[in-house]
Structure formats: structure tokens, C-alpha cells
Write a structure and sequence with these properties.
The protein is mainly alpha-helical. The chain contains 18 helices and no strands. Helix 6 crosses helix 7. It is elongated. It holds the Pfam family DUF6532.
Length: 478
């Protein structure tokens, strides 16, 4: 019997000689000091403990990795903030110094306004010390400037210096919630945003229908700066305003820079209703119609060739003549950019005259997407205009358009200019007045000889008159 149990203690006490313990309490106190027997854990419990230990170790290791990752990100953010703060501080210091110089110059020379040359030097220095943009566009895209309307209002060259940019006011002074939209702002800001969106869509149509994110940011900044300069009202391009560019486009990356998806979707919606009538696709859904539609589709996109050369943009798709003159191409140009006299193709004439290679390739790509919805012989509305696929198709179409122009650059430019003139006339806009031509070379030669003859005749007549006067004077003298 174990001495730790009550029964065992009693038996042990009885077996001891008398007088060694005064009573049972002394014996109990002595026996409680004996070490208790430890129970050995079972094999199952050991396995459970090992599993728990391994799980805790993995979690601890993952937490350590996450901590290191967050630590690196914090360092990068801190460094970026430091650079941005330094750039902004330099910009502000330069602006303050230039204001002091302007103030002293004005009072020293007793002038009421700074000279135009001083303002130009001031703006140039501000541009050099301004903080760098968040992202930069590629070599080709960065060269694209925001389109300007055909008619502009002239402003005085000695206007006041550009004021500091401020936050755009919200409608009724209330900060909006939810998805950004132009209606969140005061009416004049709303008009500025819409104008910037239109300019952005023109860049999409004439510079690059599939710009990358850095190009989108650069274009958004440029068109917003152009709108502010044209209205002489300067607001910051906030993240909310930038997201409006895309909301109106449908992609919602930025409010201005998201106009790329909207521009592609708008052109698609103009072309899709005319695909069946233009190319003779059947819509009754019969097996016979499906077979014919498949054959027609394969021919139009040149699907069976190793290096496809689509024929759907030719005026005569069977004879393959009339490059880029298919009726659907002309219809897309007119309905999308030349619907009336106030359309973008008229307002931003310099971007569309002559019709650019990028614009033609953009139309070709959109027509091909609409045809791809008939790949299996029936209309598939779930097929999407995905950028990751159709950007490659656009680049192929652009290469073919440029090859066509390279065969005879002068003739190709003349043809593209006639395309513009044709859709402009259809819009009802006033014709573009050509600059007044001077005299031709042949007319100049003929008039030069005539002037010389007139000058010679005038000299002889003056000599005769002078001689007659002298004779008359002599007769009176006699």
C-alpha cells in the first residue's frame, strides 16, 4: 500500500515502534514531504504535444517573415516620403524667394505688375524645381500632348502669376461618399472634369488605345493641367478626380485615366449593330446558318493562314481592294468622332486631320472583336473586349497600317486626309478654309515684265513732257 494514501499511512503508523511520533498528525506532516510519483505521459499525448509544438513554430516563423516584410515596406515608404517632402520644400522655398524678388523689383522700378519676361523665367524655374510626377510614360506616349480645341480664346501675356493650386470644392461643401463622379463637385468643377475626360478620350483614339498605367497617370496630369490653364482656375488633381476619368470610361482605375475602357466600349457599341448587315452574317440560328457564318468569319479574319491578313477592312472584301475604306470603317469614324459639328473630330481637328494610323488600327481591332463574337457561327455576348488579348491584335493591325502607308507615304497621307474631309462634310461642320495662296510663279514673271514695260513707258512720256515745256518757255523768251 502506498504511504501517500490514508490507508497506507495508517498501516505504516501501526508498524512503527511507540514513541517515535507523538500522534498521527506528526506522521502525516512527515509523510507529506515525500515526493509524489510522476505519471509518464502516453505515446499519444507525446505525439499531440509534438504536433502542437510544430504548429506554433510554423506560426511564429510566418509572423517573423511578415514582420520583416512590413519592416522593409515601412523603410521604402519612409524614404519615398522623405524625397517627396524635400522636393516640396524646395519648391515652396523657391516660390517664396521669387515672390520676394518680384515684390522688390516692382517697388524699385515703380511698376504695377511684373514684366512678362520675369514671369516666364519664374514659371520656368518653378517647373525645374517642382516635385517629380508619380510615374512617367514611355518614350512614345510621353511625347503626346493634350489635344486643344480648334478655337481658343487669347489671353493677355501680362496676366497675373498663376495662383497656388487648391482643393476642388465639393457640391454644397459636403464631402461625398461612394463611387467618385463628376457630379460630386461644384458645377464649374464638374464642367472642367468632363472637358478633361473628353481630351483624354481623344488621346486614346489618336495616340494609344491601350495605354499602360504610367501613361494613364501622365495623360491624366497633362489634360487636367491643360484644362486648368484654359479656364485660369487651378485645382489639385486629387485621387478622387483622377478616378473620375476612369469611371466615365467604365474601367474605374482613375476618373480621367479610366477613359480608355470607356472609349473602347463606346466604339464597340457603335460598330456591333452593323456587323451582321455589313458582312452578311445570318441570325436565324439554324445549323446551315451556323456553318455559313463560320466560313464567313474564317475568311474575313484570314483564320487559316500562318500569318493572318484580315480582309474585313477592305472596301471590296472579295477582291481585297480599297484598304481601310470598308463602309463599316467610315461609319465608325463618323458615328464615334464626327456625329455633328460639335464632335471631338471637329473640335480637336489637329488630332484627327489627317486620320491617324493609330485611329485606323483602333477601328480595325474593334471590328475584329465584334467578328470574334461570331466565331462559332452564333452571337456570343459573353465574349469580352479584354485588353490582355486585343492589345496584341491592335499592335498587329497598327503594323499593317504603317506598312500600307510606307508603300507611298505621300499618297497615303492624301488618302487619309480625304477620309477626314469626307467625314467632316458628313458631320455638317463648316469646311476648313485653306490659307490664301499668293500669285503663282508664272503670274509673277508675267507681271514683272508688265511692270518693267510700264516703267519704261512712263520714263519716255515724262521726257516728252519736259521737252515740250522747255520749247514753250524758249518761244516766250524770244
Amino acid at each position: 500500500m502506498a504511504p501517500n494514501t490514508r490507508k497506507g499511512k495508517t498501516q505504516l503508523l501501526e508498524s512503527l515502534p511507540e514513541g517515535e511520533f507523538h500522534d498521527a498528525q506528526d506522521f502525516t506532516d512527515s509523510t507529506t514531504a515525500l515526493p509524489a510519483r510522476k505519471r509518464k505521459p502516453s505515446q499519444k499525448q507525446l505525439e499531440i504535444n509534438e504536433d502542437q509544438h510544430a504548429t506554433v513554430s510554423k506560426k511564429l516563423e510566418a509572423m517573423q517573415k511578415e514582420y520583416q516584410k512590413l519592416k522593409q515596406q515601412a523603410k521604402k515608404m519612409k524614404a519615398a516620403q522623405s524625397r517627396e517632402f524635400a522636393a516640396c520644400r524646395l519648391h515652396g522655398t523657391t516660390l517664396a524667394l521669387l515672390n520676394v524678388v518680384d515684390f522688390l523689383t516692382v517697388h524699385r522700378r515703380h511698376e504695377t505688375a511684373p514684366l512678362a519676361g520675369q514671369l516666364q523665367r519664374k514659371n520656368a524655374l518653378l517647373d525645374e524645381t517642382a516635385p517629380p510626377p508619380r510615374s512617367s510614360a514611355g518614350r512614345h506616349q510621353s511625347a503626346a500632348q493634350p489635344p486643344r480645341p480648334e478655337k481658343t480664346h487669347s489671353r493677355s501675356k501680362t496676366a497675373a502669376p498663376e495662383p497656388a493650386h487648391k482643393d476642388a470644392p465639393f457640391l454644397q461643401g459636403r464631402a461625398p461618399t461612394g463611387k467618385p463622379k463628376a457630379g460630386d463637385y461644384e458645377p464649374h468643377v464638374n464642367r472642367m472634369i468632363i472637358k478633361a475626360c473628353h481630351q483624354y478620350e481623344v488621346l486614346i483614339a489618336t495616340e494609344d488605345p491601350f495605354p499602360d498605367l504610367s501613361t494613364q497617370d501622365a495623360w491624366a496630369s497633362r489634360v487636367w493641367a491643360d484644362v486648368c490653364n484654359s479656364t485660369q482656375v487651378f485645382y489639385k488633381l486629387s485621387d478622387r478626380i483622377e478616378k473620375i476619368y476612369v469611371t466615365l470610361t467604365g474601367q474605374l482605375l482613375h476618373q480621367i485615366s479610366g477613359r480608355d475602357s470607356h472609349a473602347r466600349g463606346a466604339l464597340r457599341d457603335k460598330i456591333r449593330p452593323h456587323v451582321t448587315g455589313t458582312y452578311g452574317l445570318l441570325t436565324d440560328g439554324s445549323e446551315r446558318s451556323k456553318t455559313k457564318n463560320k466560313e464567313r468569319y474564317d475568311y474575313l479574319v484570314d483564320r487559316d493562314s500562318t500569318v493572318p491578313e484580315p480582309v474585313f477592312h477592305y472596301k471590296d472584301v472579295e477582291a481585297r481592294t480599297g484598304f481601310a475604306h470598308n463602309t463599316l470603317v467610315l461609319r465608325a469614324l463618323q458615328e464615334q468622332w464626327f456625329a455633328d459639328a460639335s464632335s471631338p473630330g471637329i473640335k480637336y481637328r489637329t488630332q484627327f486631320s489627317p486620320v491617324r494610323e493609330v485611329t485606323l488600327a483602333f477601328i480595325f481591332t474593334t471590328i475584329e472583336f465584334c467578328l470574334d463574337q461570331w466565331t462559332d457561327g452564333t452571337f456570343n455576348k459573353s465574349h469580352t473586349f479584354a485588353e490582355k488579348f486585343y492589345k496584341t491584335r491592335y499592335e498587329l493591325h497598327l503594323k499593317q497600317v504603317r506598312d500600307w502607308c510606307a508603300t507611298d507615304p505621300g499618297a497615303a497621307q492624301t488618302v487619309r486626309q480625304r477620309l477626314y474631309d469626307r467625314v467632316r462634310r458628313a458631320s455638317g461642320a463648316a469646311p476648313v478654309l485653306a490659307p490664301r495662296a499668293g500669285l503663282s510663279d508664272s503670274s509673277k514673271d508675267r507681271l514683272r515684265m508688265e511692270l518693267a514695260a510700264q516703267a519704261a513707258a512712263s520714263d519716255s512720256e515724262s521726257d516728252e513732257r519736259q521737252g515740250g515745256l522747255q520749247m514753250g518757255a524758249g518761244g516766250e523768251a524770244r
